[in-house]
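Deliverable D4.2, example record:
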Amino acid sequence: MKRQTTRVVAMTALIGCLALGFGAGDSYAGVEVRGTIYKKNGDRPIQGLIQAQPARRKYVVTQGTAERSITVEIDAYSVERVDVPKPAELDAAVRLLSSNPGAAVAPLKKLVDDYKMFPWGLVAGRHLIDAYVRSKQPAEAIRAADAVIADDPAARGDPEFLTKYWEAMIGADREAGLETSLIETIKSAPRDVAAVAYIKRGDIFKKKGNCSEALVSGYLRTVELFREVKEIQPEALYKAARCFEELGRASQAEKMRKRLLADYDKSEWAERMRSGK
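Output generated by the structure prediction step:
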């Protein structure tokens, strides 16, 4: 609980620098879905039909029957998590993303709109950014990310979402502002978020053709100083190996490859390494 709160606070400065000011209107009416809300203070979970109101930063929960019902309003910042069923359309949209990212945009946008402030809306938002990036529309990816962030406070502390956001920033050639914000994030963010920020710093320098700085300020730093952040290690090892190869440092590249294949054999980055991508 404390860690999540810290993460949200730590990311506020970054989002303030990047966001373009998109937000939810007062007329928003998303899905009403049966689920459970868990509060940060440990109160008993609240079950019922839940509708999010992003403009007010509230959840409205209807309990009881049609004949006898009560309505409860819950402040979004008091919520630890919201559990609702995954929309069936999400898996279909993600499958479409792999084969035709442009065609996946519309269904993902609808899911983002319908599930604002629900976990599946954030997941759909992450895939929507990816769909725009794969369709060579980084500016639209950033606009979509900014809209999600404006509507859902949880986006500020989600490493997977932020990874996609930062990748879109790099693709849109907005590295200058992003670099400053990443440094600020690293100073105050929880270690899992900071590790992702270091990877993105490496990507910035790599894009500029500076593999040495990409290693020192990004990939190798993540490999050596964030070993406990297991989910980021495969990407860091893969990218460090590639940079070492470009610098002609074959022994160090081999060391990174061996660690990747030995410790993270099932990861997508190990598969990329094996396939030579």
